Amino acid sequence: MSPEGNGIAERVRRLAEFLVANDLESLRIEREDEVFEVGRTPEYEHSVPREQKIVPAPVRVEQIAADRVGTFHFSRPVPFVGEILEGDRELGYVEQLGIRNPIRSRGSGRVLAVLQQDGDLVDYGRPLFEVER
C-alpha cells in the first residue's frame, strides 16, 4: 500500500472517532471538487440505550464424570479445550477388564476443561471433562 493510502486510513479513523466523541450521526466535508461523507447508523427507539449494559446469559457448566473404575483413554479425534461439540459425541472411554465403556458428551456444548490425561486411572465419579451448555 502506498504511503498516501496510510494517511487516508488515519484521517478516516480520526473522523470516525470525532463522530463518536461528539455524538454526531454524519459529517460531510466539501472542498474544491471533492466531497467526503462519513456517517453511522442512527439509534432507533427499539435499540438498547447506551447506558444499559447487556447482561450475558448465565452459563451452565456440566461436569462429565467417569461412571466406572478403570483406565481413562481419549477417543479420536481427541477433544480439546474450546472445541464446539455438536450433538452427542464420544469423548473418551474407561477401560475396565478389557472392555471399553464410552464417555459421551450427552449433547452439544463447548469443552471448557479436560481434567484427566490419557492413561490415568479413574474412580467412579471422577470428573473427566467440563462442558458449557
* CATH-level-2 architecture of the largest domain: Beta Barrel
- In what range is the share of β-strand residues? 35-45%
Distance between the termini: 45 Å
The pLDDT mean sits at 84
* Tally of distinct domains: 2
Annotated CATH homologous superfamily of the largest domain: RNA polymerase II/Efflux pump adaptor protein, barrel-sandwich hybrid domain
CATH topology title of the largest domain: OB fold (Dihydrolipoamide Acetyltransferase, E2P)
**Count of runs of 4 or more consecutive helical residues:** 1
Report the major sheet: 4 strands, antiparallel
* Total strands: 10
Helix content: 10-25%
Question: Could you state the order of secondary-structure elements as H and E?
Answer: HEEEEEEEEEE
Low-confidence stretches: none
* Structural class category: mainly beta
From the alpha carbons, calculate the radius of gyration and give it in angstroms: 27 Å
Account of the 3D structure:
The strands form three sheets. A four-stranded antiparallel sheet has the order 3-10-8-5, with no helix packed on it. It is elongated. With 133 residues, the chain is mainly beta. It has two domains: 3-39, no CATH class; 61-132, RNA polymerase II/Efflux pump adaptor protein, barrel-sandwich hybrid domain (OB fold (Dihydrolipoamide Acetyltransferase, E2P), Beta Barrel). It has one helix spanning 3-21; strands at 26-31, 34-39, 61-65, 70-74, 84-85, 90-96, 99-104, 109-114, 121-122, 127-132. The mean pLDDT is 84. Strand 1 (26-31) and strand 2 (34-39) form a beta hairpin. The chain is built from one helix and ten strands, in the order αββββββββββ.
